[in-house]
Design a protein that fits this description.
It is globular, with a radius of gyration of 26 Å. Helix 2 (236-254) links the parallel strand 19 and strand 20. The longest helix has 19 residues, at 236-254. The chain contains 15 helices and 30 strands. The protein folds into four domains: 13-210, Immunoglobulin-like (Sandwich), CATH 2.60.40.3650; 212-319, Neutral Protease, domain 2, CATH 1.10.390; 324-488, Orthogonal Bundle (Neutral Protease, domain 2); 509-588, PDZ domain (Pdz3 Domain), CATH 2.30.42. The protein is 26% helix and 27% strand. It has 622 residues and is an alpha+beta fold.
């Protein structure tokens, strides 16, 4: 980090020009983003040539919250030395209100704004640190120069002038390539990107890097992949081969892709040495956009584990093409970056999306029914960590407030379970004539990218598309605060569920492991010699499993089988270091009588009707 954009010798320039629509004031935004060759930190200089303003006072707004994010970001805190000028170069009075608002007097004379902006990846890693896929990175002087340009981290808009179209011109070093979902015209040293409003521009991040890109066609859509890998361990072609079966499965699920093009913008830091990893939170994941998604995922030596990680994260983000791109409320369609009003329907945007991400894979044969069931079991376990008796629609509407902001991750847990149970109920009530997928596609056809639904009308529309009794499901479990009827509904597809159930299991006993980052080793944790088959003590270092050294890259593959139920009584040999002594410990799984939490297994006595509903739901043969 800490290098000027594209290198000091290039002196690259970003230029953004907005052309006025007939309904908008004459004139346009013309924004220049240029490097400071002598800068000692990751900082860009912004010059905004503003359109004519009709008011005596106007506010320049940097976003507080952005679509796809459910926490405050306050991008204005990265803006410094903000100055406004008239057309003669005379300074106008500016009053800064909080982090994000710049109130400008004599605004009818306003011609230009100038300020500097820091990148977010290098900010202090505290509770206000911005998740990397939603931030900015300016790194031009390393072996892997790259620039993550989320537009809302660079510039804002004049209040009341947000919907002007934009044209972004970027002058760049010839060796750098811009991957983006925005329409683009390219030459060897200048790219031009267009968007019809600030909302659309904010929806189209750009990743500049030395090109490692590829693309393929699936479901009638051109799918692009661009990769930055700090140690060169991950290649775009490898990622594309992982994505292709999933993309084809999505095309089958949708009938055809909801968009003509889509870009995966992927950054893979080295876990050991990278300076841009948030060591406090981990910070790995992705952020969705309409025609692209930005990823921040660790490099991994284990190819299978890497592919599983990419597929797991990307399947969810990819499905956001359906919601909220094609199905969204007015709160999203007319997003207020300054003081956002949140939608009630995170159960739809995130919950159903997460459910579909796993449903699509099992229906396409990319995962098994057993894997799907285990995933749902894990979501039941995780959802139980959050407070009970909370309305999901109320939580969604107030997700930026305490205490609801601490419950956000539950949208991927309980939200996905809502999707599963709702799908079961719809198919049961309609005798298989309607599915949750059918409902979503009908809503897509009615609304699409440019039309918003009214928040209060969504649930009645879903009920109208399915069966009157579906209203009761929403009243009790989504709007209401009753616990999800897991045992009742899962039994409809021949799965037995219990919060607690006695069972006999094969296991190595009570085992846990933790990673000591300073020593770079895995240690036994929360164990006693009497409760595990290997006789491990807390702090024992696990050097190898069956002679295979344990590393950060392969640890999940090596250690996870030790804490999960094995298929057979196969012996395992551990190489263990205790203090300065290295020994070997060999053990065979033992049979334990235990009480299983969140028990979920297929019923041996499932009726033909239950089996048929399960096969219909998962589109599998039983």
């Amino acid at each position: 980090m800490r290098h000027p954009l594209f290198g000091a010798a290039v002196g690259a320039l970003f230029t953004l020009t907005a052309q006025a629509q007939t309904a908008a004031p004459a004139g346009a935004y013309r924004i220049n983003v240029a490097t400071q060759p002598a800068a000692s930190s990751d900082q860009l200089r912004i010059v905004v040539n503003t359109p004519p303003v009709r008011e005596d006072q106007v506010t320049y707004v940097m976003p507080s919250v952005v679509p796809g994010s459910y926490s405050k970001k306050d991008y204005g805190r990265f803006v410094q030395d903000f100055v406004a000028y008239d057309d003669k170069g005379k300074k106008l009075k500016v009053k800064r209100e909080g982090d994000n608002l710049f109130v400008i007097d004599k605004a009818k004379k306003l011609a230009r704004l100038e300020y500097s902006v820091d990148d977010t990846w290098d900010a202090k890693q505290d509770d206000s640190y911005i998740f990397q896929p939603g931030g900015t990175n300016f790194d031009g002087g390393t072996a892997h120069p790259n620039f993550v340009l989320n537009h809302y981290g660079l510039y804002g808009y004049l209040e009341g002038y947000k919907m002007l179209p934009y044209e972004v011109k970027v002058q760049h070093a010839p060796e750098l390539y811009a991957a983006t979902g925005l329409p683009a015209r390219r030459t060897s040293t200048e790219d031009t990107f267009t968007a019809d409003s600030y909302v659309s521009l904010a929806d189209g991040p750009i990743l500049y890097s030395k090109p490692d890109t590829t693309s393929f066609v699936a479901g009638g859509a051109r799918i692009g992949v661009a990769v930055v890998s700090e140690m060169g361990k991950v290649k775009a072609r490898q990622v594309a081969e992982t994505m292709r079966p999933m993309a084809e499965a999505l095309g089958q699920f949708f009938g055809k892709m909801p968009v003509p093009r889509y870009e995966f913008l992927m950054y893979f830091p080295d876990f050991q040495t990278s300076t841009v990893i948030n060591r406090k939170t981990g910070g790995f994941g992705a952020m969705e956009h309409s025609y692209s998604s930005v990823y921040f995922l660790p490099e991994r030596d284990d190819t299978a584990a890497l592919n599983d990680m990419v597929r797991e994260v990307a399947s969810h983000e990819f499905l956001h093409m359906l919601a909220p791109l094609n199905i969204h409320s007015r709160e999203i369609g007319e997003f207020d970056f300054r003081d956002p009003k949140m939608s009630q329907h995170l159960w739809l945007y995130e919950g159903v999306t997460e459910y579909f991400a796993h449903l699509v894979q099992v229906r396409a044969g990319l995962t098994t029914e057993e894997q799907f069931r285990e995933t749902m079991q894990e979501k039941i376990r995780d959802a139980d960590k959050y407070p009970a008796g909370v309305s999901f629609t109320e939580m969604s509407r107030r997700i930026l407030e305490s205490p609801y902001d601490k419950m956000y991750e539950n949208v991927y847990k309980k939200g996905a379970l809502i999707g599963l149970l709702l799908d079961i109920r719809i198919q049961e009530l309609t005798s298989g004539k309607k599915t949750l997928r059918d409902v979503m596609l009908a809503l897509r056809d009615k609304y699409g990218p440019s039309r918003s639904f009214e928040d209060a009308q969504l649930i009645p529309e879903v009920v109208a598309l399915t069966h009157p009794d579906v209203q009761q499901f929403f009243d009790r479990y989504v709007v209401g605060t009753e616990p999800l009827p897991l045992a009742e509904y899962l039994s409809k597809i021949g799965w037995n569920y219990a919060d607690r159930a006695p069972a006999k299991v094969l296991a190595f006993g009570q085992l846990g492991f933790r990673y000591d980052e300073k020593k770079q080793e895995f240690q036994a944790a929360e164990v006693t010699p009497q409760t595990n088959a290997f006789g491990l003590q807390n702090g024992d270092v696990i050097v190898a499993v069956d002679g295979q050294p344990v590393t950060l890259q392969n640890a999940e593959r090596q250690l996870r089988p030790l804490v999960e139920e094995p298929d057979a009584k196969t012996p395992v040999r551990l190489t263990v270091r205790r203090g300065t002594t290295t020994t070997e410990a060999k053990a065979v799984p033992r049979e334990y009588e235990v009480e299983i939490r969140y028990y979920l297994k297929p019923s041996a006595a499932a009726t033909p009707a239950q089996q048929a509903l399960r096969q219909q739901l998962l589109n599998t043969k039983g």
